[in-house]
Amino acid sequence: MPKFTFKRKIYAKMLEWKSESKGRTALLIEGARRIGKSTIVEEFAIREYETYILIDFNKASEEVKSLFDDLMDLDFIFLRLQAIFHKSLKSRNSVIIFDEVQKCPNARQAIKYLVADGRYDYIETGSLISIKKNTESITIPSEEDRLQMYPMDFEEFRWAMNDEVTIPTLSKFFERKLPLGAAFRTTMRGLRLYALVGGMPQAVVEYLETNDLRKVDAIKRKIIKLYTEDFLKLDPSGNMSKLFESIPAQLSRGANRYVTSSIIGKVGKVSENSLLQQLEDSKTVNVCYHCDDPNVGMALTQNQER
């Protein structure tokens, strides 16, 4: 486990899943890379179960991956996992974690049968897991409960700064419609710090350890580089990477829409929509669509042409 383990809001939702599912479904935690999925899942396993096995499919051997090619003998699979990872499994008190499960599609497909077996709980984590290329060869199991995870929000960031008072206090002031007074400057200073550091746990750790924003910025640039490298694997033409890297420039224009043709030229509506959909599925961007009538049922008046 890392030196810093931050309090995250998703933990409460994971507890709710464990209490309600009682082994009837697996939990899939989806989100962009480097937001803390693996860390929070392992922390959950340590706190809430007697034992656990964590399979990181980024590093897993072919022997481990091949175990999920044939599910005829689940007893053999469990025995091999215990032998390989030197961990014992306890019926209804152990969890098996499939980390970066998109790297082993057969393991995700096996969830249907593993859950039906009922002996252990299963938690999957994945980035780029909604991308069609990562799921087209398998049957996606219906025995999954999905949770979307994001970088640390402002409240989680304040928790990391050892401050659990500011946000509840702000909420009370807001509910009662009271002015903040002198506290306004302190609050805005904290918000500006969050804007500078961001919500990536690795960047927050760097800030806490060094108090050096240059090093924090270097961490964030490395993460962005990882994203663009992932996009190049999905789209060797480089158009997806260009669309991603051009987001700040497009936002700074002050226009009310992202003009994709100004970045990648005219590639055709089908190709353009495919690239945008993959960007959205990567969970690295938030897509905002124009709404012609901003009332109840806004999805009914969503206008993707604007």
Question: Could you provide a short overview of the structure?
Answer:
With 306 residues, the chain is of the alpha/beta class. The chain contains 15 helices and 7 strands.
Question: Can you walk me through this structure?
Answer:
The chain is an alpha/beta fold and 306 residues long. It folds into three domains: 139 residues, 3-Layer(aba) Sandwich (Rossmann fold); 82 residues, no CATH class; 72 residues, no CATH class. Helices cover 48% and strands 10% of the residues. Helix 11 packs antiparallel against helix 12 and helix 12 crosses helix 15. 26% of the residues are buried.
Name of the top-level CATH class of the largest domain: Alpha Beta
Structural domains: how many: 3
Q: Overall 3D geometry?
A: globular
Question: Which stretches are low in confidence, meaning pLDDT under 50 for 5 or more residues running?
Answer: none
How many angstroms separate the termini? 46 Å
Number of helices: 15
Keywords:
7 strands; five-stranded parallel sheet; 48% helix; 15 helices; 3 domains; alpha/beta; 10% strand; 306 residues; Rossmann fold; two-stranded antiparallel sheet
Architecture blueprint of SSEs:
Elements: H1 10-21, E1 26-30, H2 37-48, E2 51-56, H3 62-66, H4 74-85, E3 94-99, H5 105-109, H6 111-117, E4 121-126, E5 144-148, H7 154-160, H8 166-176, H9 183-197, H10 201-210, H11 213-234, H12 239-245, H13 247-252, H14 261-264, H15 269-281, E6 290-291, E7 302-303
Parallel strand pairs: 1-4, 1-5, 2-3, 3-4
Antiparallel strand pairs: 6-7
Helix pairs in contact: 1-2, 10-11, 11-12, 12-15
